[in-house]
Amino acid sequence: MVNELRPLRVNAIxxxxxxxxxxxxxxxxxxxxxxxVHERLDGDIGVALVLASMNDxxxxxxxxxxxxxxxxxxxxxxxxxxxxVGVDELYQIELTDEDAYPIENGQLDLTAMVRELALIELxxxxxxxxxxxxxxxxxxxxxxxxxxxxxxTVTDHRWSALDGLVLxxx
Length: 170
Ligand SMILES: [Zn+2]
Ligand SMILES: [Zn+2]
What we know:
Radius of gyration: 25 Å
Helix content: 10-25%
Bound molecules: zinc ion
Shape: elongated
Order of helices and strands: EHEHEEEEEH
Oligomer: single chain
Largest sheet: 5 strands, mixed
Number of strands: 7
Mean pLDDT: 90
């Protein structure tokens, strides 16, 4: 069986032996083995990173891309896109930097970091446009395409009980 996470696991000893060397990691990782379970995810997680060996660790730079599809938070229109998050992390065998990720058993494992970043990006609520007008809270029409006469500035709760009434003229 193919190990789909293999591109994310790099021999750190080999890299650390030659400070100054770089190694690219470019891969499309399926969400399931990565452990990214999210209703908005819509495809493989893209990883485009460069691992640079330093004297005290390995610096990982690049980006993680998560394709998503969702409903606009304001108008509920179906929208899709790709969330791109920049990566600039340090991996160390001996953790001298408190923000560094550990290198365990000589292996630099990018899995946890990629999973974490993808999930944070997918959690962000999306809008179809920054100036999306949303739906009218009174009649529910899409204010991006139509306008209505609703007065939504003042709500008189004395009449709210009548809102559910259906007048039958027949
Ligand atoms: Zn919208
Ligand atoms: Zn309205």
